[in-house]
Sequence to fold (422 residues):
Amino acid sequence: MNGLLPAPLGAFLGTIGLAFIIGLELHAYRKRDTAILTPESQGFGTTRTVTLLAALGFALWIIASVIPFVIGFAVLGLLLLLDYRTRLQAGDSSLLPTIIGLLAFSLGPVVLTAPLAVLAALVILILFALGEQAQIRRFSDAFPAQEGVTFAKFTILAGLILPLLPDGAIPFVAGITWIKVWTAVLVISGISYVSYLAHRYVFPSAGSLLTGALGGLYSSTATTLVLARALRADATASFIPAAVILSTGMMYARLLVIIFLLGHADAALALAIPFGGLFIASMAVAAILAWREKGGATGAHQPVSANPLDLPVAFLFAVLFIVFAAVTSFVTTHYGTNGLHLLSFVVGFSDINPFIFSLLDGKLQVSGAAVVSAVLIATASNNLLNAAYALGFSRRRQMLPAAAWQVAAAIFLFGYAFFALG
Fold:
């Protein structure tokens, strides 16, 4: 006994109950999908049929053996194909009821053998496919073909390349393995891709403030450039300076999250005060600027940046990761902490992500505090780059508060790196 009912009886009742619910949803689907319910057009799809198919599948599996179940599955498949042929002649080309019939027959073995999470996911998927027919069709019609290609690229990055990489160390780069490099690629690409999708599809008409917040999740420098150009084209877009500050603030949060996700909890903890403080302060300054401009025109929503997830970009990141790791190892070996600080300052005027993560993963001949200081210095010089972009590409006095805040943040980071961390 397992609780109040024997285990087989409980599994049987669960199978029947789930099949009955699926049958109800399938019947509703058929009614929505067919204007006139004639026997020829409705075909397979009654609640009783689905329930009895599930009972038959359960009985063949538990009472007989696997072979009778497989034979029954094959016979049912043939009958459902004949039913599909009849419906096809009547103008109904949907394969969904046929697939549901086969799934209903297999529901019993799934209940008996699969984990509960798998069973729940299967039933939810079936009910969603049947119940959200119109929404799925609208999404399919609106879904750009290029986004399918992009998702395939991410599948290649995560599901094909990663399992093929060796877990050994990369030659001449101490402490860096191929798996570490590609894991960093996946984490950054994933966060960038999710923020891009949110910007493009969830908030397609987002104003400047939301553009800054979401854009900062994948590239504060690129977002600053886009916003600065928008302000130059439309001087009435008064929220853009606040959006630039939001973008830079989100950069601190993004770096903290990625550093923690890549397993560098100690470094994330050491950076929590300067990065966390600047994140909160940036949000406050952006809110003050936005409040001061709330009576002005917001300007048109900003164009969505190009999709940040691309195979050449991912491979370039991986190459830069390895190159920066090798250069950093050479500099720290020959020039120590001072050389590392100078390298960090210079690298900050480019893409800092591969440098920061190669810095954290490498086995360097400097202290942990020196490594964290190098991260702060690189971020500070990147702030100076963003300030230059904000003023240079906008050529508007309205951008002065945003540029001034970025310079102030850079000074704070430099000071924290040299005085708080030594």
